[in-house]
Amino acid sequence: MTVPDPDMAKVRRLAQVSRAFTPAAPVDNYSLFAGRLDQMHECLDAFSQKGLHIAVYGERGVGKTSLANVLPMIIMGAELPHLGAVRVDCNTNDTYASLWRKVFRELTALSPSLSDVPDQVSDPEEIRFLLRDLGREALIVLDELDRVEDNEALSLLADTVKTLSDHGTDVTLMFVGVAASVEHLLGEHESVVRNVRQVPMQRMSRDELETLLEKGFGQVDGLSVTEGATNRIINAAEGLPHFAHLLGLGAGRAAVSDDRSVVEQRDVDRAEAGAIQAHSMFSEYRRATDSPQPGHLFEQVLLACAYAPRDGVGYFRAGDVRRPLSEIVERPMGIPQFQRHLTELSGDRQTLNREGEPRRRAYRFRNPLFQPFVKMTARAKGLISHELAAQLQDQQAASSGLGWV
What we know:
Layout (H helix, E strand, L loop, with lengths): L5 H15 L16 H11 L5 E6 L5 H14 L5 E7 L6 H12 L16 H9 L4 E7 L7 H16 L4 E8 L3 H5 L3 H6 E5 L5 H13 L5 E2 L1 H11 L3 H17 L4 E2 L1 H14 L3 H8 L8 H10 L10 H12 L9 H7 L6 E4 L6 E4 L4 H12 L4 H15 L5
Helix pairs in contact: 1-11, 5-6, 9-11, 10-11, 10-12, 11-12, 12-17, 14-15, 14-17
């Protein structure tokens, strides 16, 4: 009789945690994809309508690429001979011809005859004729379209949408990228807006984050999670799946390493402390907060900015920073006492975007992922207590209408 090796059981469970939570990469397994049902249904509905194309857009880190990954899987999983789907990644050097070269390379698996397509196809009408011969309905996903710097390529893509729609070609283009609107992603082309189903990706809701964590921990043998730990991860993630995956990974590893079957709040604390030192944004945090000047308040002001009430597109004003900063430093603070810090954070330190006239300045974090990272770092360093953090989080949610709290 073979006796199970307890060390191998632990190694297996640690491997399961690592497969379930992937903060460094988009989800590419539908069984681990959580939430986003409305957006998925919108995309599938548009795919089923001839002449309609899709644009998925939103801020960085909300899960657009994960949706772009699993949607072709769903379509190909139907195993119908007349359906097909491919996805390609865009980059800063892409031209119209190079994008379609990548697309046809992928489409060759669906239709080998396309392997003879010339490398330099740069006319939308020629693209339409080539796609017409594909012999099936197909979804073509162009991910990270915002990285394309060639304006002519974007203009030609708009012309491609128009000619494919006008002729009822059985191919749906799906554009995915960081943008505030479909016009921002694809340019000011009326024909694009008219022929494209707009699918904005907001931050994940509390229910969606709960589903993500439930699915993730459910992949690990004999592992469950307390309500307190779940709430701690959800509040820290601020609707961004990257941080839900990051903390789920760290907390799951902590529990399994201790040979425990339940993930607790202390495991989330350990996950936060371990994550910040190794995270790629830690150097960004140091650039934002380091200063040779004695008595500076860059860490405290940055943290107050992270807790400041903000509008629907993430902007806050100096007056919004005053209350959280006063509570963090435990004394009343006026705007003149920290205006210099805001000026530097939105200048040489390259942390905040700044818009408006001097007395009507509005600020926003350049990188949306950096805002929750600042809060995590402050908690891990003891710059703020968990009690005050929860209080400021509640105040921010009440003022901003944030759906993940």
